[in-house]
């Protein structure tokens, strides 16, 4: 195994249409939907920055201008809050602006996640990089990205995040056929199967939206034909990387057992909002008390 350069850059694809949340996302990016009092995208950017990735590239599309505005200065609002002496809200507003260097490039044609990642090639260059998808929020108290970066530096390959799911749930995910490595807390991935039936699944380890990729992925993506849904699939390119020999070859998995909040559909999003609100010191005590009484009155 070889030593790889340390990851410095994060790529966050945000060009999706958010059709599951229509009509709320008709005029607002799904990534701007609030999770308590911050948009979902801010949690993702904060995760990247906390892991030391202060160079962030968002792959955007049409009607995503609100994302850029959120991470920009708002002098009028800041002056108003400062004049009122509302220091807490002022700090909260300024936090998004101060997170790091955030860049934007448009995906253009919506050709899938693999195509979105490929649009980062010029910005990333010839160095490993992280990809964070906005549907998965990782609790700030749990380490995942830094662990994945350590594994990437140690192996020189690409690294995916995995979670254990119930066998009957595996058909909703990409699934990893893998083997343990003696003396290591990560696994070697041999094959990736997209949404297999429980009977066909090689394991109960499902992929979630965190990747640390070797730059050789760009060359592979350029040669990857459209797959499922007529789109260029990142999973297909990772399958090629898993069997690749030489520089950048190999795909490894980190099994995450911490707290993850899924905002990918309406019910999961609502659960994420309630869970995070219940865990906050300023909202949790009263909300938990109210929820106890409210749920007690609901029909079985």
TrEMBL record:
Database matches in CDD domains: UGPase_prokaryotic (cd02541)
The protein's Enzyme Commission number: 2.7.7.9
SUPFAM superfamilies reported in the protein's UniProt record: Nucleotide-diphospho-sugar transferases
Keywords: Nucleotidyltransferase, Transferase
GO molecular function: UTP:glucose-1-phosphate uridylyltransferase activity
Catalytic activity: alpha-D-glucose 1-phosphate + UTP + H(+) = UDP-alpha-D-glucose + diphosphate
All residue ranges annotated as the Nucleotidyl transferase domain in the record: 9-275
The organism's place on the tree of life at top rank: Bacteria
InterPro entries, per the entry: GalU_uridylyltTrfase_bac/arc, NTP_transferase_dom, Nucleotide-diphossugar_trans
GO terms (BP aspect): UDP-alpha-D-glucose metabolic process
Family as reported in the entry's similarity comment: Belongs to the UDPGP type 2 family.
Protein name per the record: UTP--glucose-1-phosphate uridylyltransferase
